Amino acid sequence: MPPPGPEHRSGFACFVGRPNVGKSTLLNAVVGSKIAITSDKPQTTRRAIRGIVTRPDAQLVIVDTPGMHKPRTLLGERLGDLIRSVWSDVDVVGFCVPADEPIGPGDRRIAADLTKEAPRSPVVGIVTKTDRARPEQVAAQLQALAQLREFAHVVPVSATAGTQVDVVTDLLIDCLPPGPRFYPDAELTDEPVETLIAELVREAALDGVREELPHSVAVVVDEMGPREREPGRPPLTDVYATIFVERDSQKAIILGSKGSRLSRIGTRARPGIEALVGTKVYLDLHVTVAKEWQRDPKQLRRLGFD
Ligand SMILES: Nc1nc2c(ncn2[C@@H]2O[C@H](COP(=O)(O)OP(=O)(O)OP(=O)(O)O)[C@@H](O)[C@H]2O)c(=O)[nH]1
């Protein structure tokens, strides 16, 4: 890729919207690689994971924010702070509403908060999940969204069908100021690999568990590194990770009968980790009860929520 010319644009974007509207899936589709964690349960995204799109004419850095919700715990409050600090930092905001659900008070609250926290940022209105709605429903939703506030552009997209994803990227880039490239060409995300691995394990651990468990699960990679190569064997990376839960009963859920669920979590997480590190992976998972970790500042720090 040639060095950026004088017309080069760069900057930061984030997607906002109610939980479960498809923000992480859209981020993945725009960046073209699986880097943020998606799940069919609301509020699985905790960290500001960045995806980076590098083109000859622009570099777009996308920050993923957690779903909006009323704080119930210390963790909830920190999430709120994280969201607001992200909003005031970005050059353009993508405001997502799904095509198949009416616009409601939650969307109006986010629109009002946006105006308050990021009064100068251009906002692109995005109607997501268009594959789930009829064309006339999508058209009506675009109109309804346009009533909500002022938008630089309004656009429909289906991240899972891959429809209009390029248009969303173009419109976000259109709102960026002129500027240099912040990151080298090939880098998709600047999160440490341990964080991405921990998120993959957490996603696998949350698969098929009850609604109340998601907020109680945190994952930390304790240690990882290449194993000494044996002749004739493919390279192998050892990964040791701990799954933290708040109660013994939750530990039992994660473990399953005779550890069967824990081994399924490993099986489910491993392919993504292998894709990430580029070798076969030996994944050692351990479950620990850290009582009330969501309410304890010391534990929160240990788990990376500073
Ligand atoms: N049919 C369809 N489903 C989608 C689309 N985009 C996302 N989904 C699904 O909607 C659910 C939520 O998607 P996420 O990307 O995790 O939503 P989110 O807004 O990041 O959610 P939070 O992390 O809770 O804020 C998942 O089950 C996705 O597979 C889409 O374009 N079409």
TrEMBL record:
Where is this protein localized, as stated in its record? Cytoplasm; Cell membrane
Q: How does it sit in the membrane?
A: Peripheral membrane protein
Q: Which GO terms describe its cellular component?
A: cytosol; plasma membrane
InterPro entries reported in the protein's UniProt record: G_ERA_dom, GTP-bd, GTPase_Era-like, KH_dom-like_a/b, KH_dom_type_2, KH_sf_prok-type, P-loop_NTPase, Small_GTP-bd
List every stretch annotated G3.
64-67
Question: Which GO biological-process labels does this protein carry?
Answer: ribosomal small subunit assembly
Q: What is its main location?
A: cytoplasm
Q: Show the NCBIfam families listed in the entry.
A: era (TIGR00436), PRK00089.1 (NF000908), small_GTP (TIGR00231)
Query: What is the protein name for this chain?
Result: GTPase Era
Look up and give the organism this protein is from. Answer: Nakamurella leprariae
Classification of source organism: Bacteria, Bacillati, Actinomycetota, Actinomycetes, Nakamurellales
